[in-house]
Amino acid sequence: MKDNNCIFCKLANGDIPTNSIFEDNDFKVILDADPATKGHALILPKDHFANLLEADDDVLEKALPLAKKVANKMKAELGCAGVNIVQNNGEAAGQTVHHLHIHIIPRYEDDPDKTICGWSHQSFTEEETAEVVKKLSL
User: Fold this and answer.
1) Active site (annotated) includes residue 121
2) pTM of the predicted protein model
3) Which one of 10, 94, 120, 132 counts the least CB within 10 Å of its CB?
4) In which order are the strands placed within the sheet that holds 102-107?
């Protein structure tokens, strides 16, 4: 279902022009308007889901193979050395548009900003780690 108030729904469904590189019945893949690197793309489901945690499983089952297809095309055509595939859920995780989307970011040997998708590593005691394992075990 489309949300008429969602900018990404409008982009995915052709209501706003985009630099589209792929489209099928479920997704539109566009170049990011504010890219981290040359070729940075977004996979946008045509149906509205706020994030991955709310998305239908059948949409998610199609999304990762599409990300792989886009990433392989980037490596072949843009000559990037690697690719970040990023998907943020919630503002605390860096999500700024509340429509499920997947960033495909080509990475080049000479990228000026090596901090894209970086984080500071933390250490935890054995007890803290054991408690997290206990809470998250499925």
Assistant:
1) no
2) 0.91
3) 120
4) 20-23, 27-31, 41-45, 102-107, 82-86
